[in-house]
Amino acid sequence: MAEHTQITTPRELPRVDRMLEDSAIGNLIEDHGRAPVTTAIRRALEWARQQLREGPIASSDLHQQVALEVEILLGSGLRPVINGTGVLLHTNLGRAPISNHALRRATTLGQGFCNLEFDLEDGNRGVRGGAVQPLLETLTGAEAALCVNNNAAAVLLSLAAIGGKGEVIVSRGELVEIGGSYRMPDVMRLSGVRLCEIGTTNRTRVEDFATAIGPDTQAVLRVHRGNFHIEGFVQSPDLADVCTAAHKEDIPVLVDLGHGCVQNLSLPEGDGLPSTVQGCLKAGADVVLFSGDKLLGGPQCGIAVGRADLIESMRKHAYYRTVRVGKLTIAALEAVLRDHIAGRIENIPALAALSLASEVLQIRAQALVETYAQQYPDSGVKLAPTPCESEVGGGSDARYQIDSYGITVQHDTHSAHVISTILRRATPSVVGRVENDKVVLDLRTIQEAELEDLRQVLAQIDNGP
Ligand SMILES: *Cc1c(COP(=O)(O)O)cnc(C)c1O
Questions:
Q1: Residue where a domain terminates, one of 310, 329, 347
Q2: For a substitution probing ligand 1, which of 174, 187, 256, 397 has the most ligand atoms within 8 Å of its CB?
Q3: pLDDT, mean of residues 415-423
Q4: Deepest of 194, 216, 416, 463, by most Cβ within 10 A of its Cβ?
């Protein structure tokens, strides 16, 4: 293929087998082996199809992209993982996948300079990521918004800025540990506020909040119990009632909602907190704090929305400077927020995956098993479609499981443990779960574009560890 050839439509893209015969690609195969280079070509062609929506590309760009994909696949840094765990917002696997167009926005803006903190009208210093705030306000109906590095930072900053050196009231039932040493009592102490615990592990009433409010009280904090569920003799007061009691004494109510659901996903309720950011604001919350990479489906960040004076005090606090977000995050977040506002949920990969009917996944599972058998008739790998349950993860709700479909993977000679090891160490890596001594791969968390790579990795099980 001539280096200077222009490609203008997807139909002009070379096929995978043609590219494998190319001499430049031959060198890559010699160095790294055929399997990873084939995967890299597929990924580069997918990249090219995306690029072609914007304009023509040179065939040399395509070749460079193949080399880059090989480097990403085999390098010692971050590598792609096919997530067969069924846990959609898997913190260890990077939470929400981000849409191509949101990433393209980050790429384009990141390549050059941008008005990150610059007012193009008057040439003066502007507000960092000035466009994100109005988008968040439109989406949630809040008066004001602020974006920081992650939700842990948003919670810490809100406590420091709003709680000051005073007292913040929190129910003993909500003094949670999120994981990664994020324990609410420690975060509160770290922020400088005094923790005023009320109620008991299983029951807290609105009167507990009302009677705890004293001269030193600066705020009430409610925390969503996302990663566990308590049942039996339990009681949590409605957010609206707590807000009424607190507001009577002029005390603001902060809600750490964690998952940051902004769409109606019918998450189970029951800890007294509405299941959406908008619901919490409507119930009277003065500030709601949540992650950008959970059910919002965007890049890692933490978001605070609510009363303008409180958000402003967060922005002015010295901690803000240590937890602010960068331009790549803001660029991608803007695109995701626009999709939410326009109701283009299908553009947000995490939400699109959540809304897939299990019947669709069942058809994909059957097709995967059949295609594999045709492609690798002599393989000792035994695949079978199986119903399974996906989890949302990301602190959305421990009880929230969705009917799904996947495949079981077994082998003539290898145990489930050996199969998982082979899959994990393959290129690209595949992570599943082991149930009843079988490896299960849930197709809800595996994107359609990954299925071809998945079949190729499954065939490698025959080669052993
Ligand atoms: C996930 C979560 C956090 C931490 O958010 P990060 O974005 O990971 O920092 C805090 N609180 C709750 C309730 C959460 O679910």
A1: 347
A2: 256
A3: 95
A4: 416
